[in-house]
Amino acid sequence: MLRFDRRLILHFDWVMLLMLVLVSGMALANLYSSTWNGSGSASPVFFKQLYLFVAALFLILLFISVDYIELATFGYLMYGGVVLLLLYTTLFVDTIAGTQRWINLGFFKLQPSEPAKLTLVLVLASCYSKNEVRDGYRIRDLIKPGILTAIPFVLIMIQPDLGTALMLGILFVSMTLFVKLRWSTVGILGGAGLACVLFGWKYLLKDYQRRRIETFLNPEGDPMNHGYQIMQSKIAVGSGKTFGKGFMEGTQGHLNFLPERHTDFAFSVWGEEWGFAGAVFFLSCYFFLLLWGINIALSARDKFGVLLAYGLVMMIFWQAVINLFMIMGFLPVVGIPLPLFSYGGSSLITTMVAIGILMNIRMRRFQTT
Fold this sequence. Notes:
The protein is mainly alpha-helical. It contains 14 helices and two strands; from the N terminus they run H-H-H-H-E-E-H-H-H-H-H-H-H-H-H-H. A hairpin with a 4-residue loop joins strand 1 (103-104) and strand 2. The longest helix has 34 residues, at 266-299.
């Protein structure tokens, strides 16, 4: 329920807002450059992302107006809604490029797998905070969190979207390891995870997914097909050298050598145009935002706030790490965007809502439970 407290204004998280605007400003500048077609004006893609960013700022205002503790219950409703959207996507949405991921709302294409990450964090934080086990969680204590993770995981795998499905698994592991586990539980989970990887490689992965992993191990073996993206990304980042080629002066992007330059490989364009110095500056701002999120988790007033803040930071952190490693050739191409930086409405709104919840937790750290 909406509550006004003058202390909330005094405790408003200006640091998080400043870092959000700074990182988003660099992202919009990069999108302007990567989608510029030489016509003298910004592309429709740029304006669409700009409008979504402004709309997401209003969503942040909405989420900081409600005490985050109420999300412990409301999160299950959001989770149920996202599961229904995933089911609808699987059963009724037309296939695009071999996948069923987007629901066309006319003015906006919604990808339900993006808010699925956020809602999973909400329900896992609620579940673990309400069912604390002092001696450490056993396997049977993880049945409910496991089921909550497995439902959207399976629905997203069916689409198929291996990268996002794996992100749900990573979030489950990250949040589960954050709570206290028995060593026997860790051993069983580790063995089960290894068995799932072997089984998935042999029976679940499609041919193109296997080729992506094989290309990661040897991109030069197929330079004109599946290894093309990785090689062009490496060229773009490396050609930036120390200070880059200059804003809108990148050749790999503007000469169309680099595919997906405004989505999954957006940071390759930034590295080419701003060089090592620009990359270090951006990453410093980006990871300071995440470190501030960890600080929010440490100062939260209750266990739910701690787990929720930690989970949201991990949601952004792991996507960022996977994307950055992907464009530098250290991980296979799995279609994970760089949150706040890559073009994509569903990803942007989901990440902005996560930032809003983090600000909410920070602003209410002075209140008693």
